[in-house]
Amino acid sequence: MIVLVGSAGFEGALADEVGGRVVAPGIVSAEANVSPDLDPAFARQVLPAAALIEAPSVARLAAGALDALWDRFASKRGRWRLDVWAVQQGPLGSRAALVARAFSTLLEARRRRRAREREEAGAADQVVQLLLVDPARLYCSAAAPLPLAWGGTWPGPFPAGVAPVTEDRSAPSSAYRKLLEAFAWLGQAPRPGQRCIDLGASPGGWTHVALAAGAQVFAVDRADLDPRLSGHPRLSHRRGDAFGFAPEAPVDWLLCDVIAEPERSVALLERWIDLGLCRRFIVHLKFKGTGRYALSDQAIARARASGRFSIARRKHLVADKHELTLFGAAAPSGRFAENAGPFPE
Fold first, then answer.
1. Which of 113, 136, 161 is the last residue of a domain?
2. Is 299 helix (H, G, I), strand (E, B) or coil?
3. In the chain, count of helices (H) and strands (E)?
4. pLDDT tens sequence across 90-132
5. What angle do CA 18, 49, 69 make, to 5 degrees?
6. 3-state class of 301 per DSSP?
7. pLDDT at 268
8. Do 118 and 221 fall within a single domain?
9. Residue 70: how many CA atoms within 13 Å on its side-chain side?
10. Domain stops at, among 161, 190, 209
11. 76 is catalytic
């Protein structure tokens, strides 16, 4: 059995992707034959080879999980990471913390000589996960992270599937959260001197993030940017239609958060991919309700088939509502140099 973790309210979309069933808010279970390379858009975390533990007390839940996982990780050498969480905060979240403490205590008693290995630096050789779905049931899993063909790992790198996002009260809008979360999933962010095109930039949440990273930003929108961004030495703003714009030379980043029908944003990304206009992209698709999420598959398939990208994925982020975020990055042997050429005047 595989347990997949997404956002509450979008379990149906995740279940449709993997042919699974909803078992709790934001949680879907599926058969073990689901391929990791499916990389479901609505799953931010996965518990491979999961076992269901049912017990009336914290102590028995922890003991049952340790018994189920002992042969998979605790008897082996190597680093490991323990993630314990609940499907809801409040009392259930507090109970999950008690389960985590009890699990660690039991493990230390069984494996005292290497009980502190999880604190060593470096990537985990095993990801141990305990997911409490109600006071008397939890799913547990232990698995080595498996690299996926188009970026990321299975299980993913973020506990509970929640990428870290730093609060930024100076940002012009809350949209900055989506971009920071996408950078975390991509594993890359703009560097000083890199050239970013921000389409649909107003009021400037994504532009703000790129400027803070040291990038040069060319923002395109019919509307004004936040006055706090005006006069920034690395910012150029063109009033105009984002869908009709193309740079004179390939750029390091395409950032696109245009308020438009998802078909138009997909067509825009496909045009940029076909013309080789960007080395990396983060494109936000906005859906009115459900039913057209497969459009994201079309765009990502185009990126993968182009031969220009080694990372090409789409995810329903924590900050997304009826939206999906597409992101990709070119292979190191890309066709054009970074930081190449000036922005158009």
1. 161
2. helix
3. 7, 17
4. 999 999 999 999 999 999 888 765 544 444 445 678 999 999 9
5. 155
6. helix
7. 97
8. no
9. 13
10. 161
11. no
> Looking at 286, 288, 315, 321, which residue is catalytic?
286
25 vs 17: CA distance, rounded Å: 16
Whether residues 112 and 69 share a domain: the answer is yes
DSSP 71: I
Pairing between β-strand 51-54 and β-strand 137-143 as defined by DSSP bridges: antiparallel
Give the DSSP letter of residue 189.
-
**237 and 126 belong to one structural domain:** no
Say how far apart CA 204 and CA 284 lie, in whole Å: 15
DSSP string, 242-269: GGG---SS-EEEEEE---S-HHHHHHHH
| Amino acid letter, 269 | L
Its pTM stands at 0.91
Q: Residue 256: which residues within 8 A CB-CB, separation 6 or more?
A: 198, 199, 200, 242, 265, 268, 269, 281, 282, 283, 284
Torsion region of 161: left, alpha or beta (phi above 0 gives left; psi -120 to 50 gives alpha): left
Whether the Cβ atoms of residue 134 and residue 61 lie closer than 8 Å to each other? no
